[in-house]
Amino acid sequence: MNLRSLRRATRVLRAYPTLLRVGFAGVMAYRAEMLVWMLTTTMPLVSLALWTAVSSRAPVGKFGPADFTAYFLAILIVRQLTSSWLVWELNAEIKSGALSQRLLKPMHPLFLFSADNLAAIPIRSLLCLPLALVLLFATGDRIPRDPTTLALVAVALLGAWLLNFLVSALIGALAFVMESSTAIFEVYLAAFSIFAGYLVPIELFPPTLRAVSEALPFRYTLALPAELLTGLLDPARALPQLAVQWAYVLGALVATTLAWRAGIRRFAAFGG
Amino acid sequence: MRYLRLLLTQIRISLALGMQYRWEFLLGGGLTVVWTLISLVPLHIAFSGRPPIEGWTYERALVVVGWFTLLKGVLDGAVNPSLIRVVEQIRQGTLDFTLLKPADAQFLVSTAKFEVWKVVDVTAALAIFTYAFSRLGRAPAVVDVAVALAMLGAATLVLYSLWILVIAAAFWVVRLDNLAYLFNSLFDFARWPVTMFSGIWRVIFTVVIPLALMTTYPALALLGALPPRTGLLSVGGALLFAVVARVVWRRAIAHYTSASS
Amino acid sequence: MGRVSQIQVAGFCYPPVPLMAPAQSVVVKGLSKVYQVHERGAGLTASLRSLFHRRYRAVQAVQDLSFSIAPGERVGFLGPNGAGKTTTLKVLSGLLHPTEGEVLVSGFVPQRRQVEFLKQITLVMGQKQQLLWDLPPVETFALNRAIYDIEERTFKQTLDELTTLLDIGTIAQKPTRQLSLGERMKCELAAALLHRPQVLFLDEPTIGLDVSMQLTVREFIHSYNERHGATVILTSHYMDDVAALCPRVIVIDHGRLRYDGSLPDLVRSVNPHKQIALRTSAPLDRAALERVGAVVALDAARAVLQVPRAALHEAVAHLLGRPEVTDLTVEDPPLEEVMRAFFARPTAEQEAAP
User: Fold this and answer.
1) Phi, psi for A220 (deg, rounded to 5)
2) Which of B252, C87, C260, C303 is 20 to 30 A removed from A173 (C-alpha atoms)?
3) Which domain holds residue C313?
4) Which helix H or strand E contains A152, and what residues bound it?
5) What is the mean predicted confidence (pLDDT) over A202-229?
6) Which residues does chain B have within 8 Å of residue A180's beta carbon, measured at their own beta carbons?
7) Are B86 and B176 a contacting pair, CB within 8 Å?
8) Chain C partners within 8 Å of A265 (Cβ)
9) pLDDT, tens digit (0-9, with 9 covering 90-100), for B122-160
């Protein structure tokens, strides 16, 4: 059993470079679509303009214009690296039955989808990731420079990517059971935009709402790495939050695996 | 007359279709409530206990949010669904069937699908108006309501024409379905009064993607604060925009039919 | 685990007996598949009702199907639309779970979808594709190499072979969306066979192709089967495909097995007649012809007769003796017609019912 899962893991690892390469080629074929996608991920820049204007007369909470600038640049960076459009893809493939071709492959479909996601990162962040990074570093000394904090940022980013991808896979898999799960994803996105700190920094929330957002998973897909990156979150205070993040990742992994198993069984009972 | 009948049939089919997707039906209503409440949080943070920004107080900004909610209902209920379907049809090559029908293609395309339960959004918008004006301690004047409704018409026309332009673009570019996603993301900023933005963004939101016309001007009209000149310019601009969209659409169809084999 | 191997435990066996290949490539016992279909009425009230109260109807797609197929066989599934052919193929490939019955393919239970099983089979659907739409087929090939974990050398060898046989050297470099239907199907076949599967499920592989492309695909499948000893199971609307490719046919109608055997035998049992076509220098007498067999057509220069197979010899001898007959050919009635006659027959069960 162990030998078998080991063999399976090495097989996936061996295949992964090719999956990434072909995924990258696929992304290149969708350049026009990518441009639109890139523009979509620049929305934090609009938030940036809005909130710097709001805070120009008097700071909002402890946020002045410079704080808002740094925060939304960090949000932009994290969003570019971790977002996923798997829900739409899965809904389309389950509806059209195209998923059956993937199911015939001797590899879990989620590995294929994850490679597609990662392969798209260089292109979709081409436009503003470098710019945002430069600007963020130009905002001065709020960027952590010690290796420990940077390592924490990396761990938080990885956790955010995983959590985002797994949740997308989970919501996408609901399309096995219902006609379409994109409506559910819209609810998720609505909650995400507020509780993940996408529209307003969570720091500015009233205390109750802030407590709620720290208990919900959304914050751990976006705000946590962004706050670490801008020095808003003290590294010492970050550790328990990272623990919560990875607990959510683990929970999402279990839930997604189970949902897929059940979903495929149902797909097989009803036919694609 | 024929077109009215056609429209009613399309709505009836959409209604029947909407009933089948019972999950979305329930979620649709819930989503509206959640979304409306959530959209008030940033507004609250920006305005409550703080000085007015560019003349906008919390109550006045609430009126903008009301228009935003209303227009979002129109967008998601009557405009977006058809657009998404057309883009899909262009990709699969099934748009040919539509073009073969003996009726105006633009009409057929733009009435292909409605999300009927988005009428809930209209109710939510009315609730917000009521709340805002009760906090202001007055009711809007009848004339102002009439002007505001005229502005709503202009806003819808602009929104619709914008989509027709998007569909036309989809004839040339293979895949464009997340243009809808992009527009939705941008449109979310229409919940803020445009005059709060400064510099480049204010220009973009007034001229390029006229969010000002969509929510800020109708809100000003309802508050009785819209300069008549701006109102007239908006209506004129909307009409011109619609004509341009129509012309581009015709050219796109000609291009499509000559290019496809 | 899922591998059912018949190991004869001999008393002294050294070196150990290798796992023997299963004697049958496909074994199906009492297979039934029932779908739950959501019933939708037309009209507004019906759909309003369905919002709160859903009615499901069970549809029996396949009923008590049993057959087995030996390794290397080429078998054609015949049947009218909706007879259950595609359902059966999907069950055999593990995409659908059987409601009842047992299925073994290459010794595996398909629905478990074990990696070893998936590496043994392939499914080609004429109506759905696995090629990446916006990329050249070579990219799909590379992707499949990685997914199926094919060794570089084997991959090169197989790809070279497939490229030559299917003549897709230049085609495979162009984006899939620019290919014609026939070119796409050739690449689709290549992508599906890169891992050298031992069992091929082909669902309408020639649909929509022109005659010469049909022939190419047919010949290719035939040669793959002969070179690799792979089992081929095929459904097709074109009788010619099945007639040319499959020594054995399995006829499914209304989800039930109606016939399992060779195609010529089937034709003989449905229509025990042969057709004799005559060219004549002068009109023949109808009454005289009626004594030989049933007259299908008769005019000044031509006549077509149907004669029982048993009486064929005598009839031909007699007709050749007539001075007016200038030419004579004996043929089978067209396959399509035979099948139509076959499906028009009541099934055994319907006959038994009052």
Assistant:
1) -80, -5
2) C87
3) 272-332
4) helix A147-173
5) 92
6) 21, 23-24
7) no
8) 97
9) 888 999 999 999 999 888 889 999 999 999 999 988 988
In a domain, C350, yes or no: no
Residue C56 and residue C187 in one domain: yes
Question: Are B34 and A54 an interchain contact pair (Cβ–Cβ within 8 Å)?
Answer: no
| pTM of this structure | 0.79
Amino acid at C317: A
Record the tokens describing residue A126, joined without a space. Answer: 């081409």
Both C324 and C175 in a single domain? no
CA distances from residue B52 to A58, B47, B134, C29, C214 in whole angstroms, order as listed: 11, 7, 19, 79, 75
Whether residues C50 and B19 touch (CB distance < 8 A) is answered with: yes
The count of CB pairs under 8 A between chains A and B is 92
Among the partner-chain residues C97, C140, C143, the one whose CB lies closest to the CB of A268 is: C97
Q: Are residues C87 and C223 in the same domain?
A: yes
Residues C177 and C97 in one domain: yes
For residues B78 and B221, give the distance between their C-alpha atoms in angstroms, rounded to a whole number: 24
Q: In chain A, what percentage of residues exceed pLDDT 90? A: 32
Domain at C314, CATH number: 3.30.70
Write down the pLDDT at residue B177.
59
Q: Is residue C10 part of a domain?
A: no
Range of the structural domain that residue A178 is part of: 2-270
Query: What band does B252 get if pLDDT is binned at 50, 70 and 90?
Result: confident
- What separation in angstroms does the CA of A11 have from each of A111, A162, A169, C2, C56? 11, 21, 22, 21, 43
Tell me which of B19, B41, B184 to substitute to probe the interface with A (most A C-beta atoms closer than 10 Å): B41
Chain B CB contacts of A37 under 8 Å are 178, 182
C320 and C195 fall within a common domain: no
| H helix or E strand, kind and range, residue B20 | helix B2-20
**Least CA distance to A8: which residue of chain C?**
C115
A215 inside 8 A of chain C by CB: no
Distance of residue A88 Cα from the nearest chain C Cα, in angstroms: 17
Q: Give the pairing type, strands C121-125 and C199-203.
A: parallel
In the numeric block, the tokens 């220069």 are attached to C301
In chain C, count H helices and then E strands.
Answer: 13, 13
What is the number of domains present in chain A?
A: 1
What is the distance in angstroms between the Cα of A13 and the nearest Cα belonging to chain C?
Answer: 10
B59 and B135 in contact (C-beta within 8 Å)? yes
Give chain C positions within 8 Å (CB) of A16: 146
Residue C103, CA distances (Å) to A123, B188, C108, C113 in order: 46, 54, 8, 13
Please give the pLDDT value at position C41.
Answer: 55
C354 in a structural domain: no
Q: Which two tokens stand for residue A159?
A: 């956790």
Rounded to the nearest 5°, which phi and psi values hold at A107?
-155, 140
Encoded amino acid at B55, one letter: G
- Top-confidence residue, B104 or B148: B148
| CA A271/CA C59 separation, integer angstroms | 12
